[in-house]
Amino acid sequence: MKTIAAQPFAYAFEPAHTALVIIDMQRDFIEPGGFGETLGNDVSLLEAIVPACQSVLLAWRAAGGLVVHTREAHRTDLSDCPPAKRNRGNPTLRIGDAGPMGRILVMGEPGNQIIPALAPIAGELVIDKPGKGAFYATGLHEMLQARGITHLLFMGVTTEVCVQTSMREANDRGYDSLLLEDCTESYFPAFKAAAVEMMRAQGAIVGWTAGSGQLLAALQR
Ligand code: C5J
Question: For the CA atoms of 51, 218, 142, 135, what is the dihedral angle to 10 degrees?
Answer without folding.
Answer: -50
